[in-house]
Predict the 3D structure of the following.
Amino acid sequence: MKFGVVVFPGSNCDQDCHWALGRVLGHEAEYVWYQEEDLTGLDCVILPGGFSYGDYLRPGALVRFSPVMEGVRRFAQGGGLVLGICNGFQILLEAGLLPGAMMRNKNLRFICQYVHVRVERSDTPFTCLLKKGEVLKIPIAHMEGNYFADEATLAQLKAHDQVVFRYSSPGGEVAEEYNPNGSLENIAGICNREGNVLGMMPHPERCCEAILGSEDGRMIFESIVAHLTGVGV
Amino acid sequence: MKARIIVTLKRGVLDPQGKAVRGALSNLGFNQVKNVRVGKVIDVDLNGVEDEAQARALIEDMCRKLLANPVIEDFSYTLEDE
């Protein structure tokens, strides 16, 4: 079981991911430099948060031409598990591995706070140890997390049940008042149709230890492990 | 040949930045402003391209592949001889 954490120029959550996976959860994790294209030997690739390429032009816009993204594309096409967190989610959208786009937060501010998200699917490799309707307490930290998709794309997303997380109240109610950034239909995370690529704005790697205020992020990484070892979905 | 590319949010896509600017303008007393949309200007200096049709094809290709995100943005451009 080996996780690869991609390091882009400007990534700043790569070490947090590596720490959470390796030191906290005790799994094998290695860094993957963005110039590398070969991802053989990895079971799951993490695209971490940060400001790859300085967010120039648009977040994630320039990074998709880096060699590692060609590797990620092939890895995903072959059924490999890819998890994009925050900037990683923005990159997956720009690379066309997930549908839609990120807009600037509705309040035009960088938002860094704990939020609650409701789990909409428990049959993905990333959520198989969670229950549908369960609520996670998990932090967000972004300027562009306002998910947007046109009507046709949104209809497709729903038709294929691709929304995995929605911003909610602590009790699991999804309503506009619990939407921190203006995201369409409170969307906080989506997967591709096959379910092996997940993008999410909240940071599970930042909440894997009680001292950090929540351990809910663990379940996402542990789900991946359960899936890969045949315990989960 | 030079090109000035203008990237704007698609009609129908909410522009919080434009809304904030409109609010600021109205605070300054510019009550005539009905709506504001904020976009980007990208100036591209082409090398060794003399033919207008070729320049147009190149610029449109660049916009579709990188400079604009077709999900949320539209682009337009003007060409200028040096």
Remarks:
- Helices of chain A lie at 14-24, 67-77, 87-94, 151-159, 218-228.
- The domain at 2-228 of chain A is CATH 3.40.50.880 (Rossmann fold).
- Chain A has five helices and eleven strands.
- Residues 106 and 182 of chain A are 5 Å apart (CA to CA).
